[in-house]
Amino acid sequence: MYPAVSRPVLRTSLALLAAVSLASPLALAAPAAAVADPYDVTALKLTVRAGDRDCTVDADLYRPAGVDAAHPAPAVLTTNGFGGSKADGSTAATAKAFAERGYVGLAYSGLGFGKSGCPVSLDDPRIDGQAASQLIDFLAGTRTADDGTRVDYVTKDSGAGKSADPRVGMIGGSYGGAIQLATASVDHRVDALVPLITWNDLAYALDPNNADQPAGSVSNDVPGAYKHQWTNGFFLIGEAQGLLNPSLDPSRLGGAGCLHFVAKACETKRWLDSGRYTDDSKQSILDYARSVSPVSYLKSVKAPTLLVQGQADSLFNLNEAAATYRTLTAQGTEAKMIWQSWGHSGGMTDPASGELNLAEGNLDTSYVGQRILAWFDRYLQHKKGTDTGPAFAYYRDWMPVGQTYGTSAAFPASGDAWKLYLSGDGKLVDNRSKVARGSREYRNGLLPTSHSESSLAGLIGLKDPEPYDLKGSYLGWTSEPVEGAPVDVVGAPKATLKVVSPRTERVQNSGDAADKLVLFAKLYDIAPDGSKTLVHRLVAPARVPDATRPFTVELPAIVHRYQPGHRLQFVIAASDTAYYGNRGIKPVTVTSAPNDTGTLELPLAGQ
User: Fold this and answer.
1) CA-CA distance, 430 to 432, in Å (whole number)?
2) Residue 539 has pLDDT above 50, yes or no
3) Who contacts 221 (Cβ-Cβ below 8 Å, separation ≥6)?
4) Nearest CA-CA partner of 308 in 283, 346, 335, 281
5) Which residue among 172, 280, 466, 539 is buried most deeply as judged by most CB within 10 Å?
6) How would you write 519-536 as a 3-class SS string?
7) Which residues contact 301 (CB under 8 A, 6 or more apart)?
8) Straight-line distance from the first to the last Cα atom of the chain, in angstroms, rounded to the nearest whole number
9) DSSP bridge pairs for 497
10) Within 10 A of 286 (CB to CB), how many other CB atoms are there?
11) What is the dihedral of CA 153, 159, 160, 164, to 10 degrees?
12) Is 0.90 topped by the overall pTM?
């Protein structure tokens, strides 16, 4: 059982909730209205059946001026990021932005947030998706709100049996992104999706293992390294919901010892906190985390989907969107993908010049905003000649405003690979013949000895110490300076490694995956003056499947230019402050020889 939330924890939760609400994704404020009253707003309550409970959903209906039964308009459904509500800066602003552009807007507080009932259920399609489907019934005019309000002015799709099929799109970020995929998997009336900075697999997002992943996936049956800072921050925000809304009805109560999470979510949190990954528990817990994740139900998603993911995001990195994109396109679902600059780790409240700006709502002038508008023009307004843009676009921070996005007709971008070899003298070389024979060792301590980030710092505006690795707790391999043209990396680097760790070998088959070796792979950019930058503060936790054989590590995807004179450094570290790490002290040796050494491959941008 979890104890009652203490006052210090509550104060922390309130601060985090306020910060997350202010920084919550997709505050798409529209330009100044051309008329005094471009829309009217009606507050509504709708009681829906979600799973095995009745839940009261708190919503606001935005009706544009001039829209009625004789002049219907498509609808846009949006809900909050984790910790927000229908009234927060992103959810309300999104509905207003599209209402000002002639769309009917329905903004609602997700289950367990704001004044909507029922506990938090992690965008479960069987619960949250089912609830959203009944909101689509409301937009179709086939059910009323609790006060009797009925909608008869949303455009219907034509054809036999289409009288209850409203033209509906969904848009939102993070928690408000996954709900779109969950809803579309259970209700094929959804016509267009724009999920921003959301997840593919919560098992990977919260407990990532980047070792020996299935091709094109982020899923791995072996648990990785617990991302405790992100998880604990959002857990506190979720548990604080009832304390922030004391008048809520009892349906908000959770299970398994949690105040406001469903029992399975609570059990998953307890399991992650334990640090134990025994064979009798890990599979059922992984199965639950995945069952509420798009990875498990994307096969049922048919709605055209514009994926937008953030490069500055250690919570849901670019690999998550890439995995979703690959699945959707492979099954024939129309999908395109944009890698923008900002994400959970920075840039939401102060985006780079020319990027989608949440404070200004520059939909018409930002690249991402224009792509969103075109997506809805094509699939909600049925403007069939609308150009929805290239299959893949990615933000380049080294380019001037107006030229920041590179594009590709396919994903991944069709460039060559930059292949480097790990030499025994600590160099990264471009040919096996240059590999020096040698062995080097590192070891972990009882406390973390490397730092990549303080996970919530970028979201709540706190200063984060610079990344570091303490001597003796990591190994690094460094390239020669880049000569001639710069090197542009676009995609997920991949390393093939072989490590020697006798202490790991003795315990790795214990039946508890926590006894397997954990390491953290990452890429630095070393400037000519010696200063180092951990690219987007991203690391790749890897729980080595078998320390007696080679394995691969797929790093989080990046978009990064190595300028002439700069050097690339590849590091494997024993620990990281943002994650749980090794159980016990496990020294690691890496040996290199010309015909037997590790490799690093980096995908390059196409020409």
Assistant:
1) 7
2) yes
3) 283, 286
4) 335
5) 172
6) EEEEEEEECCCCCEEEHH
7) 181, 184, 185, 193, 294, 328, 333
8) 57
9) 551
10) 23
11) -20
12) yes
